[in-house]
Amino acid sequence: MRKADICIIGYPHSVDDKRVFRTVDTLSSKYRVIYVFASRADKNEKEKELKRKHDDVEFVPIPYSSSNGLMRRRNEKRILDICVESNARIWYFHHPPMTMPFKIFKTGRKRGSVIVCDIHEYYPHASMEYLPSFAIKLKRKIMSHLFKKQLKLVNGLIFISETMGRFILEKYTLDKPYTVLPNVADFSLPILNAKKRERRLVLVGKTPRDLQPLYRLEKALRKLDATISIVVVGIEGGHYNGNVTFLPFMPYSRMMEYLQHSLFGLMTFRELGPASLDEKFMLPHKFFDTLAAGTPVIVDAQLIEMVRWVEKHGVGIVVDVEHDPSGSAKKIIDTLESEKYTKILETLRNNTNIFVWESYRNRLIEFISSFFR
Question: pLDDT for 262-275, tens place per residue?
């Protein structure tokens, strides 16, 4: 294995994970990078494609394991060996180690390496949807304790949102260098006026969601304007008899064009399982994809961080589907039938740059470079 400046640990994410790989792509423009990721049979062709385009990066696949604890431990031991062998100045983790929660970070610190952790979600509340309710509180308490000890060992933190960053730093009394890198879009599209758009509201994604809020909104909308349809792209919704169409996953460029020709992007859903702080913190890729496609968003009031973005930048409307589906539907219709919609489109036109990665590349490079000084 060759020496590197940065060892980026994407595992357990796949080779083409959007957030992970853009850090590989960005940092390899300036530094020697080793990239460790979870190999999956269905990603073999994508792995070959990325290797051809980034022959300056050393790709190190590790077999993926979601539930086999013994294999996961072997994989994390391999990750530790790779980091040590690389002699990298920075060990950049996109997920904290699970079976060796402290040893990897402690080893890196002893060797004088810098540990950077990119926090994709609030891990003490993650992956709870299949647990019985009595176990959730206990697991959250244990995971929070482990997470705090891990974070005490890292040198720098990267968060997906300001809200998550402030919460974690305050909750665990941390004084660490940090930056915020939202899950922004790859590119933007021209803004179309309302007359060039289909009368549809669109929810896109691939992560399974609880769509009951969306169904309540559709019922209320149908009473006011039956010409507006709702389309869900990439998420299975089961059986629903209302005016909701389910379409399969679309390639990125096609999805962006589909959003561009829609009236609104919908952010009216819940996470599966028990209520989680992740709902408050989440800023999914599709939120920014929708805005970068030039389409306003409809955000449920429960999704606090998305609400903050909408209210700060004026790029959509906030509704409360759970408590007032009729009022939410009326707010959507009123916006479409007034100058408010045109004003939102103009605001999007003037702020497109903040929704795409090009505006954040230097922020990542500068943050990582600060540890080389």
Answer: 999 999 877 665 55
Q: How far apart are CA 151 and CA 139, in angstroms?
A: 18
316 three-state secondary structure = strand
φ/ψ of 7, rounded to 5, equals -105, 110
Who's near 164: CB < 8 A, 6+ residues apart? 119, 122, 281, 305
Whether 219 and 242 have beta carbons less than 8 Å apart is answered as: yes
Structural domains in the chain (count):
2
258 found inside a domain: yes
CATH no. for residue 268? 3.40.50.2000
pLDDT, tens only, 43-81: 999 999 999 999 999 999 999 876 677 888 999 999 999
Range of the domain at 84: 6-183+357-372
Cα 207 from Cα 237, distance rounded (Å) = 11
Q: How many CB atoms lie within 10 A of CB 184?
A: 24
- One domain, residues 113 and 40: yes
Q: Is residue 188 part of a domain?
A: no
Of 257, 347, 343, 254, which is closest to residue 293 (Cα–Cα)? Answer: 257
What angle in degrees, to the nearest 10, is found between the helix axes of 285-292 and 252-260? 60
